[in-house]
Amino acid sequence: MPWFSPVTCRGQSSLRFPSASLHLPCIQIVKMEGVQPLEENVGNTPGRRFQRNKLLLVTSIIQGLGLLLCLTYVCLHFYTSQVPSQYPPIQSIRVQFTSCENEKGFIITSPNQDEIMKVQDNSIIINCDGFYLISLKGYFSQELSLSLHYRKGREPLSSLSKVRSVNSIMVAYLAFKDKVYLNVTTHNTSCDDIQVNGGELILIHQNPGGFCAY
């Protein structure tokens, strides 16, 4: 049998010795709460919290810039779709001539009805002032003389004598109300008997934005 016996206090413990009736003070047992492990305390140091907050701030800034770029792109796309073009479409036309008539000469026709420039009375109508790139080509079954005109009383843009083919490119200044047309002269045959292969005339306006009238 032990020479002392434990005595339990309220929330405390003490030792009583029977021989001397000696009591030791009660020892209070305190439970420590709210103390975090060392590893967690190290993770919550001010330096680490600052780095984490800095990383979150940089991420938020990048996301904000991305959203701003997206909104800017959408606004610009919407604005450009609503604002009309500053300049009108470029004046151009491509016509073909595949047959010849004694009274009219080569008959020019436009295969594309949506061309900006139009054909009227077997001539190409000029609506805008400026320089035009002009391409003329074709192959003929008979020898002939061919000239390209733009205004009555003026020298032709091009004049070829006694040829069976033409393939030329030039640049000429044309003005409003000019009319570009072909004049053909046959030799020892009628125009109706001449066959044309690959007859083509192209006009392209080189400096849009100038004077135009329709």
Can you summarize the main beta sheet?
A: 8 strands, antiparallel
Strand content: 35-45%
* Average pLDDT figure: 78
Helix amount, in percent?
Answer: 10-25%
- In total, the number of strands is 12
Described by the principal axes of the CA atoms, the overall outline is rod-shaped
Radius of gyration: 50 Å
How far is the N terminus from the C terminus?
129 Å
N-to-C SSE string, H for helix and E for strand: EEEEHHEEEEEEEE
Instruction: Report the total helices.
Output: 2
Structural classification: alpha+beta
Poorly predicted sequence stretches spanning 5 or more consecutive residues? 11-15, 19-24
Walk me through the structure.
- The protein has helices at 38-43, 46-82, and strands at residues 5-8, 12-17, 22-23, 27-28, 92-101, 105-109, 119-120, 123-125, 130-149, 158-174, 179-186, 196-205.
- Helix content is 20%, strand content 42%.
- With 214 residues, it is an alpha+beta fold.
- The chain is rod-shaped and about 110 Å long.
- The strands form two sheets. Strands 5, 6, 7, 8, 9, 10, 11 and 12 form an eight-stranded antiparallel β-sheet that branches. Strands 1, 2, 3 and 4 form a four-stranded antiparallel β-sheet that branches.
- It is built from two helices and twelve strands.
- The relative contact order is 0.15.
- Residues 11-15 and 19-24 have low confidence and may be disordered.
- Its main location: membrane.
- Residues 74-204 form the THD domain.
- It is a single-pass type II membrane protein.
